């Protein structure tokens, strides 16, 4: 536990190069969703004796989708790519997206804070939910890490799509009659190539 992580060294090195940005408030982002008592209870706390509305940290357990939810994954199945009919990816304002962590990351945040403003037994005592403190903190950390991981995957996928799109465009301009995606060792690359080619034909 006392050993410094590799991530810490990377952060320290980056901080010497530029100003790093932390995310904004979690509470006000949650408030705009106009949640009700049942959102803070779900099945796990449906019989809890005290009101829980306003205990935002509980949402990491009862409504993790509020903290971070991705309904459309950037890594679609091949079938999904070929048969998609909706805008992809959906706009950040799309009501199907409730994704506080991801919105901050897409806005340029280098750090996102966990949803643990009241993640201590002292704070949770107001709601008689001290027994959930470990789960609140653990799940909040997992959600934040998943958000960062998904952003990294999306960035890598977008780079693949652009690379294959540039290649396909040049091949078409050079006069090829057929574009063949083959000898691919990673299915994500094949999906990116097919997505890029389809997008190229739709745009042009």
Automatic annotation (TrEMBL):
Establish whether keyword Iron is in the entry.
no
Q: A single GO BP annotation from the record?
A: tetrahydrofolate metabolic process
Q: In which pathway does it act?
A: Amino-acid biosynthesis; L-methionine biosynthesis via de novo pathway
Q: Name one Pfam family in it.
A: S-methyl_trans
Q: Which InterPro entries match?
A: HCY_dom, HCY_dom_sf, Met_Synthase/Corrinoid
Question: Which PROSITE patterns does the entry link to?
Answer: HCY
Q: Which residues form the Hcy-binding domain?
A: 8-204
**Which keywords does UniProt give here?**
Cobalt, Metal-binding, Methyltransferase, S-adenosyl-L-methionine, Transferase
**Which molecular-function annotation in GO is an example for this chain?**
methionine synthase activity
* Top-level taxon in the UniProt lineage: Eukaryota
List the GO terms this entry assigns under cellular component, sorted alphabetically. cytosol
The entry's family comment says: Belongs to the vitamin-B12 dependent methionine synthase family.
Q: Which PANTHER family match?
A: METHIONINE SYNTHASE
This chain belongs to which protein, by name?
Answer: Homocysteine S-methyltransferase
Which species is this record about? Ancylostoma duodenale
- Lineage summary: Eukaryota, Metazoa, Ecdysozoa, Nematoda, Chromadorea
């Amino acid at each position: 536990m006392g050993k410094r992580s590799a991530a810490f060294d990377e952060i320290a090195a980056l901080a010497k190069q530029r100003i790093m940005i932390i995310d904004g408030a979690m509470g006000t982002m949650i408030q705009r969703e106009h949640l009700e008592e049942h959102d803070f209870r779900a099945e796990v706390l449906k019989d809890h004796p005290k009101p829980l509305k306003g205990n935002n940290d509980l949402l990491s357990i009862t409504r993790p989708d509020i903290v971070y939810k991705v309904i459309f994954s950037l890594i679609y199945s091949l079938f999904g790519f070929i048969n998609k009919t909706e805008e992809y990816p959906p706009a950040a304002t799309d009501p199907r997206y409730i994704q506080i962590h991801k919105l901050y990351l897409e806005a340029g945040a280098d750090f996102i804070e966990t949803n643990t403003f009241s993640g201590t037994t002292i704070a949770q005592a107001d709601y008689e939910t001290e027994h959930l403190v470990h789960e609140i903190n653990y799940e909040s950390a997992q959600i934040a890490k998943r958000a960062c991981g998904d952003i990294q995957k999306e960035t890598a996928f977008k780079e693949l799509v652009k690379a294959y799109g540039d290649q396909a465009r040049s091949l078409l301009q050079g006069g090829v009659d057929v574009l063949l995606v083959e000898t691919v060792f990673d299915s994500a690359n094949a999906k990116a190539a097919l997505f890029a080619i389809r997008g190229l034909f739709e745009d042009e």
